[in-house]
Amino acid sequence: MHTGPVLCVRWAHSGRWLASGSDDQIVMIWDLDPSAKGKVWGSDEVNVEGWKPMKRLPGHESDVTDLAWSPGDRYIASVGLDSQVLVWCGYTLERLRKLDQHNGFVKGVCWDPVGEFLATQSDDRSVKIWRTTDWGLEAEVTKPFEDSPGSTFFRRLSWSPDGAHITASNATNNKGFVFIAAVISRNTWTSEISLVGHENTIEVASYNPHIFLRDPDGEVKTSNICSVVALGADDRSVSVWQTKSARPIIVAKEAFDRQIMDLSWSWDGLTLYAVSSDGTLGVFNFEREELEGIAPFSAQKQYLHKFGFVAPPLPEGYSHTAPSSAVQAQQQVQVHSEFGAQANEGGERINKLVAKRKDKKRVGPMSMRNVPSASTASVPSASISEAVFRPPPSASRSFEDAPHAFSAPGIRLPPPPMHGVSRPSSPSMSTIQASSSFADYSFDVDMERGLDVRIEALDESGKGKRKASAADLGEESRPSRPRTLGGDRPRETVVVKEIGRQSPLPDRSWMGVGLKIVLGVPPLLTYLSTKVEGPGSGEDAVFEAKNSENGDRFEVSFVSRKQVQWLDYLPSPVLALAATSMFCACVSEDGSVNVYSPQGRRLMPTLALGSPPTSLHASKGALMAITASAMVYVWDVKKRGTYFPPVSIQSLMDAGLATILSASVRPNGTPVIQMSNGVAYSYDPSLSCWVKLSERWWAAGSDAWQSRQRANSQVAARGIVAAIEGELASPNPGEDGYIEPGQARPGWWNVALTLGHLETKMHTAKAVDSPQEYKQALLVYAKKIADEGFRGKAEELIRELFGPVYWRPGKDDSWAPSVLGFSKRDLLREVLNVFARSKMLPKLAIDWQDTLKKASADE
């Protein structure tokens, strides 16, 4: 049995075995237990089938995130957060190979249906292709993922059943502003095709297991073959695409309350299952006519023979014999009868989608017969409302655009509705958008839980437009734009240039004891802008400021959907801006700070800093200003307060020898100041002192130093601590920490610096509120202690995490039971697992594991 949450479940192709992966670091193989049926003990829930654990496959050192069975179940591959890919025999279940060339969490794996390759996708922003003949690296694809976010739970990718393409999730276009699924071509291993339209990161791609024939009566050959792929994303939507069309067959918008985590097709290819982190399962049923051209598996087997790949022989004495058809039929009848009874006796509630039938005109899913694809010679002119994001023409290409793609004309393919959805009778018409983004066509659907799930498809004539819900529309016309402050005036294009100040700035220097420090003031420009960061802010939301050259007008405005939503006029020129989804802020030359809500209301009184600003920074609800007088202010905008009193950075300037390279603020209000002397600082209010987050000194000997991995990757992918270290250059000759080549180092040099560095990383992770990096540093620290056999340090760490033996919630406040949202005793379990695998501390680990079990039982 698993001892942690299960992250993935995969059926063997034979149907005999089931594989599951969990964050307990174990892959479990399950077998059907005919005798384990009946009610679940202690409840009225019915177990239609019973599956017993057959074998545990240990080997991963962290969460197992994805699994995949190879064609014919010859192999099973598992990937995890330990950055490793493990390949097991699908028959003997022995481990055959470990692939460890990824430099980040591996979150997706799939097999080539031919059996020649294995593909994996990782947080290191790459898809790696491995040969199954020698398990060597065939290719690495990175371009579509250079700007991809790293905050997704999974990066599940899928290989088309004809072997021609890999569709990889979590890719982006346009420098990360357009979320796409990248389609990678076989052999060339390039991605020139993008599936565009989801409004947030795509988590999972899943191909229908069947190949489809463009002409059902034609031959099984490359020009007559296409595939169907489903995508699930963090925008809570599911889309289904066919490779012969530039637009999706169907889009189910906001079908769940939270993001989609996984997708799976039934073996007959007519049912799609989607699961979400909201704990629900969605089922999309298609009629055979709706997925026209579906071919039997014999056609796929015949087609794949052309690749000429010969799989290695199977182990002798092993097989994946599936149950006989008679047994299967009997089990199927029993499953249906028992499941139906359970559904009617108050078990799991099943929400069915029912279409609204109204007299008003609605756009329903119709035939795509006359819809032009990207390869059609004549395409109508584009027409789309400004409220709909439209990617640039170069952002994507359809399957039809690729030189190796199919060139046959599209055939009739009616888009499938959700199960139980009937079609409206009166579709509305208008022109369509000439791009590869999602088709903007919808009708309303009611669910018993009271949610609206919009199903989008194309109408019969290739014309249509996005329709709002019935509550939003009049009888025949769209509503006019709402009135906004400044929205009735056209936007002016302002040439960005520096304005000469009418009078020099007064002496704003801050006087210390024997020191005089003046920080630079930004130049006065005619135009400033910053993108509004954060969810819900819109793709094109911008906060901007305009300073007139003659000094008679200084204004700020919030622009979204090419329209001014609000504006304000200020008495002093604006020097810096900052914006999040929660607020917008500006600071003027006279030191005044104004903070606005997303609708332009002033959230706080105008703050007077008394000195011109050097910079302004924001993150979620935190706002930080650094002034020319070397003072740092950090406010909690949501609570209308400050995280700590204003503090001077004069002490960090090293008597004028060090300068500020960069500054930022964390969502918890922690400032991060990068200095030119190779040190990153933050202020700790509880200690009333500046503290060092990291410094390049550690590069002189720490085995955990990461600056050699510096790259222009996003902070979200690497973590804030790794990003801080990535910006610290290794010491140069003459600087602290520099070691001359060949210079002798003291004994225990590397061990001491590595342990000190890891301890500092843990304190830093707590300061900047980075739970995963804290846990990672803790486990690496524990492994280093175990490898060196430092029993005293190990016992001290154990006691710190275990706490008082007789601690009970509410009775003893001297010890906190959690850190950064993690239970300390849960972390201790993982630390003890590290100690137990070591050569020098297994006895200590076993003793404390027993103590921890007893304490858990008492709780």
TrEMBL record:
Family statement: Belongs to the WD repeat HIR1 family.
Broad class of the protein's primary localization: nucleus
Compositional bias annotation for Polar residues: 423-433
Ranges: WD repeats: 1-33, 57-88, 99-130
Subcellular locations according to the entry: Nucleus
Annotated organism of origin: Heliocybe sulcata
Protein's name according to its UniProt entry: Protein HIR
Ranges annotated as biased composition (Low complexity): 371-385
Lineage of the organism: Eukaryota, Fungi, Dikarya, Basidiomycota, Agaricomycotina
All copies of domain Protein HIRA-like C-terminal, residue ranges: 600-801
Region (Disordered), start-end ranges: 340-433, 460-492
